[in-house]
Specification:
233 residues; mainly alpha
Length: 233
Amino acid sequence: MDLIKKLNYLLAICIGILPVNILMIWYRLSHPDSFTISEMLVYPLVFGGGNSLLIIALNKYLLKGKICDFSPDKGKWYSNIFYGIGLAIIYFLLMVVGRATLPAILPQGEPPLQEVIDLMISLANNPVLLALWLGPVVWIGVAIFEELVRTFFLRCLWGLSNRKAWEILSIVVVSAFAGFVHLYQGAFGIVSVGIQGLVMGFFYYRIRRIWPLIISHALYDSIQILLFMVQVS
C-alpha cells in the first residue's frame, strides 16, 4: 500500500505539475514574439485557473486528500495577512540585492520588455483592464496557480520520504524548477526566481500555510505592476 501511495505521488507530479510547465517553457522559447494584451489577460486565467482545478482534483481523487491539506496550519486570517506582507517585503529586498549583485556575475538575458510596456500602457489607459489584471489575473492566474503548484509539488515529494534531508532537498528541487520555468529570462531570471522560491519553500516547510504565500505573491506582482505603470506613464 505504501508503494502504491508513493507511485500516486509521482503520478500526480507527472499529471499536475510537469505538462503545463513544460508547455510554458516550450511556448516561450519557440514563440519569441510578444504576447498581445488579450493573450496576457486570458492565458493566465485559462492555463493557471485550469491547472489549479486539475491539482485540486488530483489531490482529492488520486491522493485521497482534502483541500485543507494545502494549508494544514490554518492560522488566523490576520496572521496570514501579516506573514504575507512580511514575505512581500523580503521579496522586494531580495530584488534590490539581486539587481545590485547578480548582473555582475550573471547575464541578464533579454526579457520581452516591449510586451510589458504595451501592457502597462493599456492598463494605465483602461481602468477595466487594470481591475481585471490586479484582480482575477494576478490572484487566480498567477498567485493561486503558482503557489498551488509549489505546495502540491512539495507535498508530493515529501510524501516519498519523511527524512529531513529529503525534505530540504525537495525545497531546493522545487525552487530550481520554478526558476527554470523562467528560462526565457536567461540566467538572471532563473537564479533570482529560484532564490525567491527558496524563501517560499522554507516558509512553507516551517509554517504550513498557503495563504501567506498567495498573498505575498499577489502583493509583490501587483506593486511591481503599479510602480512600472507610474514609470511608463
